[in-house]
Specification:
Distance between the termini: 102 Å
Shape: extended
Strand content: 15-25%
Number of strands: 13
Radius of gyration: 40 Å
Largest sheet: 9 strands, mixed
Order of helices and strands: HHEHEEHEEEHEEEHHEHHHHEHEEH
Helix content: 40-55%
Number of helices: 13
């Protein structure tokens, strides 16, 4: 083929055939060379792949696996260099542990927990802290809050005082450090009893109390009877479960009182370590917030009377509007139109959408079962420092007791023992575990810096408990 130069090629038809043969021979040579190269290279690739697998799995050889592992190590080294060069993210919690806050009047315990959690969450966001990533929940909607905050024992809305909170890991150690006695200071009033056994409830019983002439008589008759281990029936409005339902849920849904009357609440044994009865309320207790039973009752009656009058006016206006509408149209036609309108409204909705709509209606109905206090922490009628002295039918009760004791039930039973009835009108928790009222962080000091400082002080108390156990 090399000798067949252009000058030596024949002319005419022979020249065309010779040129075609030359192209065909060149193609065959090119294809043959590629196949020979591939045939020689295939075993080499197979050996390299085999060596690479052995090397990647067992650390031997210089094949493909070794190169891949080297590339992987280089990438990790680059990532580590970049991460080391950037500063670590701020921690989510600056401190974790227990602290005591002062629960204001009219706040629920969960209100306090939510408020503190919000403060810490906003502080973490301002510092640039982020919650830890959880790959298991990636792509899923998590209902858990960023911050873990919980309380170690409920206080009623009309009670104030020490509420111990756990933050972060402190939520898991709440109960272990809150064992032991709790201290309460209460105000009781003879002559009436409410369904909730406190000032917030509806009056259900009244009885004469004038045969109780002096406070010494109360001390003589009550202190020996109610000191030590006693049995008491918890209040109907409490969080105890009966047949899987909480008692306060049953009571709030039972407007007639028939279901509540059929409930048999079992007695429980509690222990009263120490009790004092008197007519003076300590200044620190008054500052904490003690509801004035008489003023609270009068204020509620005024509010209820105004609400009843407004309801009458609204009912009269509704009746007049209904009468005017009935004069224009027949009532039956209105019902038919209403039903047709509702059916047309539901047309095109799926079954799940119709069920959701029905649940929303039921939820709105249930919201009426839960009372909301008509007062705030600022305007709730409460005792002042200048009227801290009590006179019968009111008296003070200071109690040091074990867990599970209901002071409302204790006051009720004191009334029965005095041949009358009684209601607890005010309550302050002055000690819970190692935390006392002076340790409690007050509402005006609720900010991130003060909260973390209170947790540091709480750690000192818990460390003392751990050392005493050792």
């Amino acid at each position: 083929l090399i000798l067949c130069s252009h000058s030596q090629l024949p002319h005419g038809r022979d020249r065309v055939e010779m040129k075609s043969l030359f192209v065909f021979a060149s193609t065959i040579l090119h294809v043959n060379t590629r196949f020979r190269y591939a045939g020689a290279f295939a075993p080499t690739m197979k050996r390299a792949r085999d060596n690479g697998q052995r090397d990647y799995g067992h650390g031997r050889g210089n094949g493909y696996g070794s190169q891949q592992r080297q590339r992987h190590n280089n990438m990790n080294a680059n990532d580590e260099t970049e991460s080391n060069s950037s500063p670590p993210p701020p921690p989510l919690y600056l401190e974790e542990g227990l602290l005591a806050v002062h629960k204001p009047l009219t706040w629920t315990s969960n209100d306090v927990v939510s408020y503190i959690r919000g403060i810490l969450t906003r502080d973490a966001g301002d510092r640039g802290a982020k919650p830890p990533n959880n790959n298991n929940n990636r792509g899923k909607r998590s209902r858990k809050p960023m911050f873990k905050v919980g309380h170690g024992g409920t206080l009623d809305p009309l009670a104030s005082g020490v509420l111990v909170l756990g933050v972060g890991k402190g939520t898991t150690s709440l109960q272990s450090y809150l064992e032991g006695s709790k201290h309460y200071s209460a105000v009781a009033e003879l002559g009436y009893e409410t369904d909730t056994l406190d000032a917030e409830g509806k009056m259900v019983k009244t009885a004469a109390w004038d045969h109780v002439t002096d406070i010494d008589t109360v001390k003589t008759k009550i202190l020996p009877k109610f000191t030590g281990k006693i049995e008491q029936v918890p209040p109907l409005y409490s969080a105890i479960r009966i047949d899987g339902k909480r008692l306060y849920e049953i009571a709030r849904k039972d407007d007639s009182g028939e279901a509540a009357a059929k409930i048999e609440i079992p007695k429980r044994e509690v222990e009263i370590y120490e009790m004092e009865i008197g007519t003076e309320v300590e200044e620190s207790v008054v500052r904490s917030g003690v509801v004035d039973g008489a003023k609270y009752r009068d204020a509620v009656e005024t509010i209820e009377a105004a609400a009843a009058e407004a309801a009458k006016v609204a009912a009269a206006a509704a009746a007049a509007a209904a009468a005017a509408e009935a004069a224009k149209q027949d009532g039956a036609e209105d019902d038919i139109a209403k039903n047709e309108g509702e059916s047309k409204e539901d047309e095109g909705l799926s079954k799940s959408q119709k069920n959701r709509k029905r649940r929303n209606k039921n939820t709105n109905k249930k919201k009426g079962n839960f009372k909301k206090s008509p007062f705030t922490e600022i305007d709730v009628p409460s005792m002042q420092a200048d009227n801290a002295s009590l006179e019968l039918p009111r008296f003070g009760v200071s109690v040091k007791c074990g867990g599970g004791t209901y002071i409302r039930s204790l006051v009720r039973d004191i009334g029965y023992e005095l041949d009358t009835v009684a209601t607890m009108t005010g309550l302050v928790r002055t000690k819970q575990g190692p935390f006392v009222l002076e340790d409690a962080l007050r509402r005006e000091d609720w900010n991130a810096d003060m909260i973390y400082e209170a947790i540091r002080k709480g750690k000192e108390k818990t460390q003392q408990i751990d050392e005493s156990k050792d």
